[in-house]
Design a protein that fits this description.
Residues 63-143 form the Gfo/Idh/MocA-like oxidoreductase N-terminal domain. With 322 residues, this protein is α/β, with parallel strands linked by helices. The protein contains ten helices and 13 strands.
Length: 322
């Protein structure tokens, strides 16, 4: 991608898809467009209403970009979101936005659906942002790798990559000495939310993950990863553990630190702003190799659990571009 939207004064975005347990169309659209408080109060995700209400009016908006179209799996949801987040156009089918927007955001977090949801836009040459995880199986990851090898503009990330609470340790962990152990706790499921924990840790530890072992069960995943840097990593993803969402612990030879993730609005806005910058410049905010490694870890964790906690080496599953 070479930044084809560099000279467009206003980037038009479509917000596409909405699945149970994920209110991104409300929150992401509001971050771009602002919102109507009375309509947003009817959002079925109270947490979104609460963190949006904490922000001053001038915190909303990403310069030069706006959500202009919306489609959701249930038509009535699109109407509600459009009213809450000031989206002027509700469409009857996702493909209806082709030719009317400059890029689309796939706002769903079921990885096994993402190839089908993205395909019409990838084939039409429309840039796509895909919510995490990009994929949750090897076949779909290979399809994304093929599209990316052909130069298709696709970006995917977790907002945890942009968490401001973790920034000091993304810059340096020297105050902790050599890292020996790290943990992250997360709610919901490994399949949909394990990527949050992994992508929060990845910019701190860097590339070099080698093995994944999941000794948990559906609804309760306990995942042990090893890394070339000498640290062991344990991620616990438990369905109802909302009280420990995004709690990071780093333990080194000199010191240890516990850092809770707190500012969801900041992380989402930084994530979305990074996509807009990618549209403007063609420069990725981070290499796609990182996304490939992260998604491979998600897949390995699923396979390990299915195989009674077998240690899965990532090089067993390595998916590379052509």
């Amino acid at each position: 991608m070479t930044g084809p939207l560099v000279n467009r004064p206003d980037i038009r975005l479509a917000m596409l898809g909405m699945v149970e347990g994920n209110g991104h169309p409300y929150s992401w659209s509001a971050i771009f467009n602002g919102y109507e408080p009375e309509a947003m109060a009817r959002c079925p995700y109270p947490g979104i209403v609460q963190y949006l209400a904490k922000e001053p009016a001038d915190a909303f908006g990403i310069p030069g970009a706006r959500v202009t179209h919306i489609w959701t799996d249930e038509p009535e949801d699109a109407i509600r979101v459009s009213r809450a987040a000031r989206i002027p156009h509700v469409v009857q089918a996702p493909e209806d936005v082709i030719g009317h927007v400059d890029a689309v955001l796939i706002a769903t977090d079921i990885g096994s659906e993402h190839v089908a949801r993205c395909r019409p836009f990838v084939e039409a040459g429309v840039p796509v942002f895909v919510d995490k995880p990009l994929a949750d199986n090897a076949a779909d990851l290979r399809q994304f790798e093929s599209w990316l090898a052909d130069g298709r503009p696709i970006l995917s990330s977790s907002c945890m990559r942009y968490a401001k609470e973790f920034l000091p340790y993304r810059l340096s962990t020297s105050s902790l000495g050599a890292l020996r152990f790290a943990t992250m706790t997360m709610a919901k499921s490994w399949k949909r939310y394990g990527i949050h924990a992994l992508e929060g840790l990845y910019p701190i530890l860097g590339s070099g993950f080698r093995t994944v072992r999941n000794t948990g069960a559906p609804g309760r995943d306990i995942v042990h990863l090893t890394h070339d840097g000498g640290a062991d990593i344990v991620i616990a993803t438990v369905t109802d553990m909302a009280g420990a969402f995004g709690h990071l612990q780093l333990c080194g030879t000199d010191a240890a630190v516990h850092v809770p993730f707190q500012d969801t609005f900041y992380a989402f806005k930084a994530q979305l702003a990074a996509f807009v910058d990618y549209l403007r410049t063609g420069r990725r905010p981070f290499p796609h190799d990182e996304t490939r490694e992260l998604v491979t870890m998600v897949i390995a964790g699923l396979q390990s659990r299915e195989q009674d906690g077998r240690v899965v080496r990532l090089d067993e599953l390595q998916v590379t571009s052509r």
